[in-house]
Amino acid sequence: MDRAGAAAVTGRPAGRPARLPRPLRLALLLAPALLVVVGLFGGGLVQAVLQSVGYRPFLPGAPLSLDAYGELWSDPAVRASIGITLRVALLSTVAAAVLGTAAALLVRSLGRSRPAFAALLQVTLPLPHAVAALATILVLGQSGALSRIAATLGLVDDPAGFPALTQDAFGWGIIASYVWKETPFVAVVVLAALSSGVAELEDAARALGASAAQRLRHVLVPVLAPAVAAASVLVLAFTLGSYEVPFLLGRPFPATLPVVAYQQFRDPDLAARPLAAAIAVLVAVLAGACAVAYLSLSERLRR
Hints:
Elements: H1 3-10, H2 22-52, H3 67-74, H4 76-109, H5 114-121, H6 129-140, H7 145-152, H8 172-194, H9 198-207, H10 212-241, H11 244-249, H12 257-265, H13 273-302
Helix pairs in contact: 2-13, 3-13, 4-5, 4-8, 4-10, 6-8, 8-10, 9-10, 10-13, 12-13
């Protein structure tokens, strides 16, 4: 069969090679990035799981067991860190989601100044979280700007008498740093969702006689819910696994799970290595649970 006949049978012009299926093409395009992510994260996770069960090739004859996972709750440092980690992550996520959504709606209601305020929201996005933590110390620390202003106004006797908002047991400084850094991120995500034809939908609903409450319930909430949920899951997963902000703004005890894992990992006693790996696996499981919860929530929102 010549080329013309083959083209008539296959439906392709003569001389044009066959195209790969779309899923295969997408897989090949994403392969370089996926190999890096899977290699780094997946390899580290596998190594952490192996070390958590006692696999230590540098100690020949070390038995394999699940004792490290049993120590997670029996160790008072780990037990206290679970509470402060969940408290900081949940409060930071809720505050950032509420403030970010409110900021996005405020920027959306502005007129000609909307692009300027939208750009202002993105100023802190490129800043590393370590820089945000240091800025929090300079503002909220007992020798920071706020304490000095309070002492100048006579609200406290001296800056040292200002309430401890950093290196405190509750984690207010950590929460403040996360909220300051993540609120603009949530706002940018919500603004992107609001720019996808929402104004036209609201105009149509208004023309059909829908009240402001009905437009909020039937137009804005269905559009905003997936965006807010996606941003909140990312913030929650990050705050659960972040190390530098709790290390700079928190106490050595109680510390968050990533800080405790690093402390255990640096312990000269190699017998503490499985516990450090088990804590790292616990953090990964919590982040994975956030992703699963988001997928379930997004599926319900689509329905």
